[in-house]
Amino acid sequence: MKRALSLLLTAALALSLLSGCGPKNTGTSSSASSSGGDASSASSSDSSTSADYTLPKFMVLSGPTGVGAAKLMADAESAWENGGKTADGKPCPIAQDPMVVADNQQVNDALINGDADIAAIATNVAATLSAKSEGAIQVLAVNTLGVLYILEKGDTVQSMADLAGKTVYATGQGANPEYILNYLLTQSGVDPSQVDIQWLTAQEVSAKMASSEDGICMLPVPAATALMIQDTGVRQALSLSDEWAKLEQGELPMGCVVARTDYVEENPQGVEAFLSAYEESIAYMSDPNNLEDAAQLVAQYEITPNAKVAAAAIPQCNLTFLTGADMKLVLENYYQVLFQANPASIGGGLPYDSFYYGVE
Question: φ and ψ at 144, to 5 degrees?
Fold first, then answer.
């Protein structure tokens, strides 16, 4: 949804956030953060580009959740080389040295202790973190839809029901992949206990598949893409997005951008500037005409292993930019499904309305 928040709405929102949010009843840094003092404060003598807010310390999770931010980070790097101003003379939308990390917990810790102000993380982790922190985290936008695939060496898996009695190597325990897999198995008449799900890192899953003659795994892109490039004997058996769609549960929002509530309240203009730049970044990364350059950026920031994998994976990353009411609708539907299946998957309860930035 295209954002059209006025300054008045932004100010009103900042006041409304003071009530906080929480649950209803019904997770390798590429660079160190060094945004202090003048480096994180946006200001200019030119009134047309001046701003008086603290630039956000930005962190993304490697993999599909971080892909949409690659252009933003590249533009920010260029801006800081030009004294903190973008090509059109505006303040850089993020502080120096954004971070790319490999684990949700690293992002969680950074948001809680203030090492990050805005971050791209998994959607269920966002809800859980907000609940555990008693509303210290808000969601700004959905950035990634379904990216999970069942891969196989062989031709035995044609449906979710075919996984019964089999071993599945998988990554994402405690996050969206685990809950989505369990839900889809259950809806297909398969108790998850009937499947030997071995939770591993993406690298370990790939190693298991390489040494197996008839292995089955669940991976997100770009890890799934990389595996199929490395081993031509591995095929895509199922798209979990397609399996989800068969259940008519709406979209499958897997990645989002969140911010510390304190930062949102103290720097509403900073949030809006970030979202504007982030929307442009996602549009650039999603444009097929930019695929080659986009792939180079993704590899440059170590969001994927290399540009070849990135070029194959980006079209499958389902990048999107949903904010406001559209974001809330998609997330609420998804959270309702997760809550009914396993309340702990989103922190024990559905998020309050104040969890959703830009929605009255």
Answer: -145, 135
The domain 148-246 having CATH identifier 3.40.190.10: the answer here is yes
Where does residue 318 fall: left (phi above 0), alpha (psi -120 to 50 degrees), or beta otherwise? left
Burial of 253 (0-12, 13-18, 19+ CB in 10 A): buried
Query: Which residues touch 230 (CB under 8 Å, ≥6 apart)?
Result: 206, 210
What ranges do the domains of the chain cover? 7-145+253-355, 148-246
Cβ neighbours, 10 Å, residue 15: 9
CATH architecture of the domain with range 7-145+253-355: 3-Layer(aba) Sandwich (3.40)
Q: Which two tokens stand for residue 92?
A: 């850089």
pTM value is 0.82
Element (H, E) at 159: none
Burial, 273: exposed, middle or buried (Cβ in 10 Å; 0-12, 13-18, 19+)? buried
Q: How far apart are CA 294 and CA 88, in angstroms?
A: 21
Q: Where are the alpha helices (DSSP H) in 287-353?
A: 291-300, 307-313, 324-341
Going 11 to 326 to 218 to 31, the CA torsion angle's sign is negative
pLDDT in tens, 84-101: 888 888 889 999 999 999
Q: For residue range 194-229, what is the model confidence (pLDDT) as tens digits?
A: 999 999 999 999 999 999 999 999 999 999 999 999
